[in-house]
Amino acid sequence: MTVCIAAICQGPFGPVVLAASDRMVTVEDIEFEPPMPKVWQLSHTIGMLIAGQSGPQAELFDRISHQQPKTVQEAIQLYCSELGNLNRRNAERDILAPLGLTMKSFLIRQREMAPEFVEQLRVEIDKNRANVQTIICGIDKRGAQLYTIDAYGKATCNNVVGFAAIGAGRWHAESQFMFAEYTPIWPLSKALLLLYVAKKRAEVAPGVGEATDYISIAADFVRIDPNDPIHRAVEIGRDRIIEIQDSAINEEFAKVDSFVNEFMAQARQQTASTQLPPTTPQQPKRKKPKT
What phi and psi values does residue 10 have, to the nearest 5 degrees? Predict the structure, then answer.
């Protein structure tokens, strides 16, 4: 459980990619925040943000970084290829090897097996897939690049919208960018402030921690120092924005609550005034008998 966010913006000397990630690690019912960032550097202008199982992600990062990708596209291709290899190795070890099969022999001998057995193995192989989500972003000869990759190795380009998030806090973070009508032509300062707000809002999601790592990628991969004056200034601005937003929401809630209560009270009074009081039925008059 986590949240990772990235956004493309415009700096004074060209495009910049900003990113943020928490440090929360969830193992069954235990949550803790180790001093280990989830924003990893693949090259001097390419970053990788991770969510999901940290073990497989560490293995994938190790294999990709050793191949030193030169572009974001190359890093994505390496990641998807290594993810497929990792899932095949795990499926062979955990599911097929006890049956005397490899992935190759399983594919060849499917016609010899009962369809129900083949389908069962396919379901187990799919369940055994590494539970990972990844953002790969950076600057290369094509400009600013921002991609998300799911557990099936499907890469999605987010260059046009200019932002993306993964993890449990994804919807909370992305909603801040959508409400702000964000575009990748936003200036660096404005985008940085929104990134801080989005990360803070995402902390309401289960499993998202408060400790945060921020990076910027332009001519180089830079981790934003928590003691940097810019970091503190942006934090102050973020807290002020959230305070103002929450105060305005509570004020409007109070106004609407007062209006609704007053309206309902008037409606009850009007209803009561239109009701006629109950009447006693008149008894018919008896005629006097003739004498």
Answer: -115, 120
